[in-house]
Design brief:
The chain is α/β, with parallel strands linked by helices. Helices cover 53% and strands 15% of the residues. The longest helix has 29 residues, at 112-140. The radius of gyration is 19 Å and the shape is globular.
């Protein structure tokens, strides 16, 4: 077995796959990687948005090796795209799983479709990408990097996030194992844990069983969105995380501090999360009365 230097520390001249490239973090990361000299392979379910991203990259003089619109929950579609990319461009150097979606709700309001959608898009979708693109990287023996976007909800127990956290904790677990499994092959793994990000998703997330237009809910979600960081900041953090070979990549100090605090001070963390959950439950009860 050939052993490469662990991690690829730059995207320059690297063949880089970015999922979710039509908007939000995916689009910003694709643009930032292109500016840094990457050769892009782009996907998204939104064909028009994907084409806009690809056109902007090409107009700036950067390279898009391939761009195709499909749903990453469709394993056969991911496989077909991977086969085409590998036939034309050989194994990739960096794989970025950025595509995702979000739904919040209490267990009594969440339906099976919500649980399934969160897991299919946010966990099985990235797994489909990993299955198809990482083994060829291993066989190529050139090293590389794997980036998986989790969430603050993949690190700490945020109220009403059970279905979302099921997937985000899941991709965190996958990443922690692959961090060690892929090290002998020179492939570094990076887990991105953003909090609120100012993308269409932060405004359009599904809040199951709750009227998002209720003034009390608007105040609550307003606090969340006011702390949202720009997607460009997350993109910069991702590229820096690769360069500095960081496993967990944070986009804001509050998430870094919250996770550190949860690990170091288990009892206070338990008390705070109980109170937060009780506050959310009280809000829900007041809306039902």
């Amino acid at each position: 077995m050939r052993v490469a230097v662990v991690g690829r520390r730059t995207v320059r001249d690297a063949k880089v796959l970015v999922t979710g490239a039509a908007s939000g973090i995916g689009r910003s990361t694709a643009l930032a990687a292109a500016e840094a000299g990457a050769l892009l392979v782009l996907t998204d379910i939104d064909a028009e948005g994907l084409e806009r991203t690809a056109a902007e990259i090409r107009a700036a003089g950067a390279t898009v090796l391939a761009a195709a619109a499909f749903d990453i929950t469709d394993f056969d579609a991911v496989t077909a795209f991977a086969e085409k990319v590998h036939a034309e461009h050989d194994a990739l150097d960096i794989v970025m799983n950025i595509a995702g979606t979000s739904a919040w709700g209490t267990v009594e309001n969440l339906e099976h479709k919500h649980w399934r959608r969160m897991v299919e898009v946010n966990l099985m979708g990235p797994i489909h990408v990993i299955e198809n693109f990482v083994p060829p990287m291993v066989r190529a023996g050139r090293g590389g990097a794997l980036v998986n976007v989790s969430s603050a909800a993949g690190l700490i127990a945020l109220p009403w996030h059970a279905a979302y956290s099921a997937a985000k904790f899941g991709i965190r677990g996958v990443s922690e194992v692959l961090r060690f499994d892929l090290r002998p092959h020179g492939i570094s793994v990076h887990l991105v844990a953003p909090g609120a990000v100012d993308t269409p998703l932060v405004h359009s997330f599904e809040l199951v069983g709750v009227n998002k237009e209720d003034p009390r809910v608007r105040r609550m979600t307003g606090i969340f969105t006011r702390h949202a960081v720009a997607p460009e900041k997350v993109a910069t953090a991702i590229l820096r995380g690769i360069e500095r070979n960081r496993f967990i990549v944070y986009s804001s100090f509050d998430i870094r501090f919250g996770y550190w605090w949860a690990r170091k001070f288990a009892l206070p963390y338990d008390v705070v999360m109980r109170r937060a959950s009780a506050h959310f439950s009280k809000l829900l009860a007041s809306m039902d009365s």
